[in-house]
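Entry 14. Structure prediction run on the chain below.
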Amino acid sequence: MTLAPEQKKTKKPKKLSMKARYEALTRGLDWEPSYVDKDEMFPHLDYEGIKIHDWAAWEDPFRLTIDAYCKYQAEKDKRLYAVLDGFAQGQGHLSLTDASYLNAMKIFLQGVTPLEYAAHRHFAYLARHFAGPGPRFAALCQSIDEIRHMQTEIHTLSNYNKLYSGMHNWPEHFDRVWYLSVPKSFFDDAMSCGPFEFLIAVGFSFEYLLTNLLFVPFMSGSSFNGDLPTMTFGFSAQSDESRHMTLGLEAIKFLLEQDEDNVELVQGWIDKWFWRSYRVTALVAQMLDYMLPRKVMSWKESFELYFEEQMLGGLFEDLAFYGIKPPRHVEDAIQEKELLSHQVYWTLYQFSFAAGFTTTMPSEEHLNWLSESYPDTFDTYFRPLWDKEAKNRENGGRHFAPGLPQLCQVCQVPMLFTEPGDPTTLCQRESEFEGEIYHTCSNGCQWIFEREPEKYRQAWLPVHQILAGNCGGPTVPDVLEWYGLQDGDAGEYLGSRDHQNWVAWQGEAAADTAAPSETKAGA
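Output returned:
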């Protein structure tokens, strides 16, 4: 008998720990270039003046790897798409509190979804151009997050697009419609900055300081108003946003710890981008106070909780260790919390004939809620406006402003804000640059303009473009056609196509519910 040779036992390869895998997939992919020098490989890192001495000091607190990231996101997407399927098959849209709720979703789709795509593009740019493996990998993960958010937002709201107006042409609206130049100009401004300023603009000032003002109360509002898909999408995205917030904070600490000379630059960017980000949230403020049929919390409560308590009372006390102070003009923002949402909605109400959503006058119950939420200001300054409009409507009128609003040269919001501490006087600032006068809406926007006048003089202001003949023609119908708006997209909500359909569908649903019991009683 011949014995077979004994085979050697092979050892199974040892599985790396999560930390070791992270190190291999991030630090392990970094190397010293041999064909070019580092300045040629990363050409955009010096001109802003930021000094980095040790890129390896960047720490990602989540230590994500791509495979772990994909598995986690896939689980979340499975749950989201199961909800979307169930909602569509069960006619879930009829469980909304009212079709007017979708006006908030139209602004979200038109104004926020394109920003997700822009963020995807620019974080991909950062993933290429940062010289350190840690921030490169963090930027890569955020880039993937952002395009996933854009896709899931579109899929979530596509169910409503089949049945309701205003959601059919949002990419073109984002590029052309006047109020959407507010978020668009914000992101165009950030993307035309250097890589470190973009990180402070989006990663810190928008994602860390103010994103909770958008996502947390807004998604709670979706839940309160029967919008299960948006609530599911929102809370799915919020876990990513929490990671983005942590990365934004890590980024600013990294820059501040690298060199003392960075402090002044970072402080200037915080001052600028806090105010730019805050002005974008003006659209969110009016959505919270006026566009949700069933209320969650007022803008004032949200601002006090998520910004004043958590950021001013917590974050900036920690950043004081590095020499960072609260943003310039933050006191103006605090004074505006009583007024912001009312001033913005009153303007949108008058100009909604040229918008991708509809507006209507608040009901008596709604006005009473606003009085309770803003006891020091609403009855004095804003309720009289709505009382006057109620009489106007009783006489068969409905107020639309026939002209074009003047826009701020920086934030591009109409010049609707009042002087700090004086709600009866419009705030209008003028700056002269090379013989031309430029108008801004606030101390914050004037300071931003005068800091970089060469940049902001080039702003693409929608109203100026209409007057220059670049928006389809001289008449309102010409411009609305160029916007890509269709019948039913804009104007007054009551009596609109969405309102009429909603009333008819609710009637049919009530009849279907009543029919079995009537049949049974008849039998």
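The longest strand covers residues 422-426.
Filed with the rest of this week's runs.
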